[in-house]
Amino acid sequence: MNESPRPPLSVLVVEDLLDVAESVADLLTISGHAVRVASCGSDALLAALADPPDVVLLDIGLPGMDGWEVARRLRSQLNGKQPVVVAVTGLGADDDRRRSADAGIDLHLTKPADPVALTTLLARVRSLLSSPDRGLGSCK
Question: Which residues are annotated with the PTM 4-aspartylphosphate (predicted)?
Answer without folding.
Answer: 59
